[in-house]
Specification:
By secondary structure, this protein is mostly beta strands. The protein is built from no helices and 11 strands. It has strands at 2-5, 11-12, 25-32, 45-51, 58-62, 73-79, 83-89, 95-97, 101-103, 113-119, 129-130. The radius of gyration is 24 Å and the shape is rod-shaped.
């Protein structure tokens, strides 16, 4: 067996093949057979995938005033990567949400609204936007 990662020259390999230290981005792994007479498989098996270890960054695009006489608050927000957005009010569990969010029926006092992005690879913003 011979293997190639990302277009490198084919080299002898065994199965299973363990790859480590891969950078973020697209990768293609190919494997082909070579027999004792040095005949080479002309159509190597090929698999392409994407490594994504970087979490999105989430930010507010609009917030209510820091001090308000209203029991309602509206927030708009965005993430640097496609995926899902998750919101939390006053330390509650993060749940899926979409921008904008309108909160109503808020009690008097201080409140904290947080939002984080989660990309398709499951990476979540470790420092949610907080207001």
């Amino acid at each position: 067996m011979e293997c190639s990662l990302d277009g490198a020259v084919f080299a002898a390999c065994t199965t299973p093949a363990a790859l480590s230290g891969l950078t973020d981005g697209s990768h293609t792994f190919q494997v082909r057979a070579r027999d004792a007479a040095t005949n080479v498989d002309p159509t190597p098996a090929s698999f392409t995938w994407t490594v994504d270890t970087i979490a999105p960054d989430t930010s507010f695009t609009s917030t209510p005033p820091a001090l308000s006489g209203s029991s309602s608050a509206a927030f708009s927000f965005t993430s640097t990567e496609a995926g899902t957005l998750e919101c939390s009010l006053d330390g509650s569990v993060f749940i899926a949400c979409t921008s904008p969010v309108a909160l109503t029926g808020l009690s008097d006092g201080s409140h904290t609204f947080q939002v984080r992005g989660r990309d398709a690879a499951g990476n979540a913003d470790a420092t949610p936007a907080s207001f």
